[in-house]
Predict the 3D structure of the following.
Amino acid sequence: MSVKFEKETIRNAPLPGGIGGALPGGIAGGIAGSILGEQGKDIAHNLGEKLTGGDTQTGYLAAYLKQLQDNPLRTKMLTSGSLSALQEVLASWIAHDRSKSGHYISSRVPKMAVYGAFVSAPLGHLLISILQRMFSGRTSLRAKILQIVVSNLIISPIQNTVYLASMAVIAGARTFHQVRATVKAGFMPVMKVSWVTSPLALAFAQKFLPEQTWVPFFNIIAFVIGTYINAHTKKKRLAALRKKHYGDGRSDSGRTGDYPRRDY
């Protein structure tokens, strides 16, 4: 999934749609106050301000956006690496895909973190920078539509191809034929998901969100979609392995490698 953002001053930019103020003194404070009294209201208020920054713009979201402005590539690498690792753990839990030791945290987790930090984030940073320069200063409806078209016909196919190839290598593919087969089998299903979700998410961001908030917004969208695709793939793989090797039963470990690994 691809986004467009420009470097802007964070400290003077308001957060979207009342994010900074609605939670601390409003809904959360009212609910906590009715249950725990003034102490609960104060806790909810303090928690909300830490998360969103409130009116002072000193919360975690404001700090993240400032780091995104000051150190964009490093911040994206840390964010993508962390979310990729968490995505692998969550998808394994959803699909009941355990390692040989019976845990959901397998050797794929650090590999996914490496992929997110050193492959996905730099590639996305480069492609989005190019997309940003192409549409710099163009704010018309036609330009926004063209931006979505270019994103889905050029940026997304590149990112999805690299993603599928990387997933094949992480899963154990060691030959070009295995990687190509994985990309060929998964390309169109992944692209269909991108073509449905990416235009909607990008149009929503263009309409309702300040550009400095696009990155965390799309990180959340990509995390949810990626977790779903990963979990769905794991379920299909485990079902095929059980049918081939174990009949209708389950294996003791619940996990077998996608590709036969060589002894090296």
